[in-house]
Structure formats: structure tokens, C-alpha cells
């Protein structure tokens, strides 16, 4: 007997085969897409690594805008012990990194810290015509950035990029929210840094820059459109459960 149509079983078999082929194709395409996204994200992270590593290395020999009093009048000199000078420099470098490599909003909005150091007075003895170093140290202020308009140039550039308040009565920088503050701070760093004579931000595809929380502060996004965060000093990192992770 001659048949003019497929049986129901044959149609079901064909549909099953087509479903399997479609599923296999979807898995393959998904895998290729995932690999491409991962590669694009690696490229972005590589640029970020170059920017941050270059800035980190610069602090090893970074000159500081600091002035420590060296004399009080003509008969009293101030001597700074080498160890104290090293301590003061460390504090300054740390605060400079905080301002120039921010990983949160307050790093940008807070002014430079006040710094003092211990010095030993060296007093002129007219009887012996010599200077004598006093054993007891005294505290003296160190002149460097004092806040207001007197801040590092890069910090001033960051502040210029923060959206202005809607109302004059609002607290300063209030439009910048904290939801993705580390990612937004990272964007500030990259957008004001040059790599090999070119703005570093030009190495980031425009499609990987966005404002996911709508506060007017841009973030650098991975290939899945998630903001890439930044931790300046990753010590005692806290995981997603809020549990500190240490080296102990």
C-alpha cells in the first residue's frame, strides 16, 4: 500500500533530531560567546593592570611637595632623625596614594591629612661657640597640601568630574552614590592617566563604559556589563558574606 504522508512517529523523530541539533548549536554558540566575552574582559583588565601598576611604581621615587622647618631664628636649628624623616615620607606617600588612587568616594572628597614630625632642637652655645643637640624631641608641623584649593592636581581633576549638585543647599558631591563607588573611582583614575603618551581611557572600548547606577559617575564594565571594582590596599578582604579573609 502506497503512503502519501509521514506517520506521527516519524514526525516526532524528526522533531527530536531537530531539537537536539538546535540545542547543540545553541551550546556551541553560547560557548563561543562566553569565550569571546572572557577574552575581551581580559584585555580590559590588562589595560587596567598597566595603568595601576605604572602609578604604583611611580611612588617609589615620587618627589613630595613638603617643607619641614629647619631653624627657629638664628640660634636654634631643627634636626630631623633619618628614621623620623622616613616615617613622615611613608605617611605622605600613603595619603597621596589615597587621594590619587581612590577606591571609594571619601578618598576623593576628603582633604589631605595634617602631618607633624618629631625634631630635635640644636641650640647654639655662645660659650663654646658650638651647636648642641637636645635629647628631647619636639613636635612640629609639616607643610604640604592644606586642603581647599591646595590639593594634588589629580585629586582636583577627579573632583571636577563629579556631577554638580542639583541644589546649592545639598552637601558637596552628594550626587555620587556609594553603590559602585570603587568602580567609579577606578574610572576616575583611568580617565586621567596616560599610557605611552595616549589617554589610557581610549584603550577601553566605549561599549565597556557605562553608568549602571545612574548617579552620573561612569564605570568601566566587563563584557557582561558588570562594573569592574578596584581595591587599593587589598588587606583583610571581605567576601560576599561579609566575612574577613586574612592570611592567617
Question: How would you characterize the overall build of this protein?
Answer:
The protein is α+β, with helices and mostly antiparallel strands. The chain has one domain (9-220). It has 5 helices and 11 strands. The chain has helices spanning 8-58, 82-100, 105-109, 153-160, 181-191, and strands at 71-72, 76-79, 116-125, 130-133, 138-141, 194-195, 198-199, 209-210, 219-220, 237-238, 244-245. The strands form 4 sheets. Strands 1, 2, 3, 4 and 5 form a 5-stranded antiparallel sheet that branches. Strand 3 and strand 4 (130-133) form a beta hairpin. The chain is elongated and about 130 Å long.
Give short descriptive properties of this protein.
alpha+beta; 248 residues; elongated; 38% helix
Radius of gyration: 30 Å
Q: Got a strand count? A: 11
User: For this entry, what is the oligomeric state of its chains?
Assistant: single chain
The helical percent reads 25-40%
Mean pLDDT: 82
Write the layout of secondary structure elements.
Layout: H1 8-58, E1 71-72, E2 76-79, H2 82-100, H3 105-109, E3 116-125, E4 130-133, E5 138-141, H4 153-160, H5 181-191, E6 194-195, E7 198-199, E8 209-210, E9 219-220, E10 237-238, E11 244-245
Antiparallel strand pairs: 1-2, 2-3, 3-4, 3-5, 6-7, 8-9, 10-11
Give a quick rundown of the structure:
The protein has 248 residues and is α+β, with helices and mostly antiparallel strands. The chain is 38% helix and 15% strand. It has one domain.
Amino acid at each position: 500500500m502506497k503512503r502519501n504522508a509521514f506517520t506521527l512517529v516519524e514526525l516526532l523523530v524528526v522533531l527530536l533530531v531537530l531539537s537536539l541539533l538546535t540545542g547543540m548549536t545553541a551550546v556551541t554558540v553560547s560557548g563561543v560567546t562566553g569565550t569571546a566575552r572572557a577574552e575581551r574582559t581580559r584585555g580590559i583588565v590588562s589595560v587596567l593592570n598597566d595603568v595601576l601598576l605604572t602609578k604604583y611604581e611611580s611612588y617609589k621615587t615620587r618627589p613630595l611637595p613638603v617643607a619641614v622647618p629647619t631653624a627657629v631664628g638664628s640660634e636654634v636649628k631643627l634636626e630631623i632623625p633619618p628614621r623620623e624623616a622616613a616615617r613622615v615620607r611613608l605617611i605622605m606617600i600613603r595619603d597621596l596614594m589615597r587621594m590619587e588612587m581612590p577606591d571609594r568616594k571619601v578618598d576623593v572628597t576628603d582633604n589631605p591629612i595634617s602631618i607633624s614630625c618629631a625634631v630635635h632642637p640644636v641650640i647654639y652655645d655662645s660659650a663654646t661657640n658650638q651647636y648642641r643637640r637636645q635629647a628631647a624631641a619636639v613636635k612640629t608641623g609639616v607643610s604640604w597640601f592644606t586642603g581647599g584649593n591646595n590639593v594634588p592636581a589629580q585629586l582636583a581633576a577627579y573632583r571636577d568630574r563629579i556631577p554638580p549638585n542639583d541644589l546649592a543647599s545639598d552637601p558637596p558631591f552628594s550626587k555620587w552614590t556609594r553603590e559602585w563607588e570603587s568602580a567609579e573611582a577606578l574610572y576616575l583614575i583611568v580617565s586621567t592617566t596616560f599610557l605611552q603618551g595616549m589617554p589610557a581611557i581610549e584603550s577601553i572600548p566605549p561599549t565597556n563604559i557605562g553608568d549602571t547606577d545612574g548617579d552620573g559617575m561612569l564605570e568601566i564594565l566587563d563584557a557582561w556589563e558588570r562594573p569592574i571594582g578596584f581595591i587599593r590596599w587589598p588587606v583583610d578582604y571581605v567576601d560576599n558574606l561579609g566575612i574577613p579573609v586574612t592570611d592567617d
